[in-house]
Amino acid sequence: MDWKVGSALNNLDIFNGVCVKKVQQETLMTTTRFAPSPTGHLHVGNLRTALFNYLIARRSGGKFILRIDDTDPVRSKPEYVDSIKRDMEWLGLQWDQVEHQSSRLERYAEIAKKLRELGRFYECFETSIELDLKRKKQLNMGKPPVYDRSALALSELDRDVLRAKVDGHWRFMLDKSRVEWTDQILGDLSIDAASVSDPVLIRGDGQVLYTLASICDDTDMGVTHVVRGSDHVTNTATQIQIISAIGGTIPQFAHHSLLIGAKGEGLSKRLGSLALRDMREAGVQPMALLSHLAKLGSSDPVELRASIDEIISEFDLERFGAAPTKFDEADLMPLTAKYLQGLSVSDVATDIANIGVPSEKAEGFWNVVRMNISSLNDLQMWWDLMEQGADPQIEEQDREFVLEAIAMLPLRPFSSDTWSIWTKLVQEQTGRKGKDLFMPLRRALTGMSYGPDMGALLPYLTTIKTKI
């Protein structure tokens, strides 16, 4: 594929000698879109594209469109549409307008008709096997595997004969010239359209493919900025030519780096890689995820932000690079913990009530545990410990010491001073101090070697298992 950085024109693109004005960010309201296909659950890579488009629209006071790419009737499922909306709502990425491409098929047919009338749309009949053989032959001859346009040489009689055997698919005829544009992330780019096959826009079964539907929608809906993954760079030259052919306005393009998993693997909705619903169930907080993705792959450090408005005000596409960007889900939990630590009890009142904490204990409970949770899912564990007690964890060499100490534990009710009073007494009676004093007692009461300050926790331990 022949694409390279070049010296693109600042304000004009040229197609067949015709100058077409580019969208100017300063003069038009920014309109962006996120167009997922409902063929699986959203993963973090999809979210990155959605977030970038959302932030651009919101920063300019423009419009953000959620467009469901459901032209594939076999793979598109209503439950995935619901899942997409649920994920977006969970993250607070509210759309201004929702569209379904399946409801716009008549409009796509109109555009296809226009392209036929312009002589830019032609019917082809090769099977996938025949096309594969052609590509292999071209490669063996040292030629680029570009469609040879042999279908144009067919007579009308030839086409009638072939139509009786196989359903024809429709290709857009590219102008074999170099297309130049300025990408908002990658800079000045150019692609020689002669190195690209005429794209199939309608399959033999009549299904309208993404390129035609997307271009038609972007044009009709006034999309001014298209932000997407760098795997779409080579598609841009094709799409610019189609936009020009139907008389549309060319949007600003920006291609961000692709996210890869912690081990370098690609992300896929069908594989369920890093699915947003799984992150939600794991207790990841929306602001932790959004703060992370809004900076990951940029020249700025990843820092937690308290609100989406802060993220919007700081966002700048020009700070992002082109190299594949590694995403490690483990990085989200420290951000989630930090976010939770800054919340008040009113922010988590519902979550606390849902695990059975009485309202009169809610504030105290939250203040005790909030510095010791990585997600809200941990709340249940701490409440169970307080209500049901924990199995003591005692080293054999500490057994006699713990038995002696438990016998000195003050009577209830415990206060915030009980721990210090008790441990001081134990120290005086046993001679133990420091870690040798405190750690065996913590393990005996909580079954753990870590946790909240014992002075704060002890009053909430309704049950203490004293069987050592």
Q: Can you walk through the features of this model?
A:
This protein is α/β, with parallel strands linked by helices. Among the domains are: 276-341, Glutamyl-trna Synthetase, Domain 2 (Glutamyl-tRNA Synthetase, domain 2, Orthogonal Bundle); 343-382, no CATH class; 389-468, Arc Repressor Mutant, subunit A (Orthogonal Bundle), CATH 1.10.10. The protein is 40% helix and 13% strand. It has 18 helices and 15 strands. The strands form six sheets. The chain has a three-stranded antiparallel β-sheet, covered by helices on one side. Strand 2 and strand 3 (18-21) form a beta hairpin. Helix 9 (286-295) packs across helix 11. The N and C termini lie far apart (72 Å). The model is unreliable at 1-27 (pLDDT under 50).
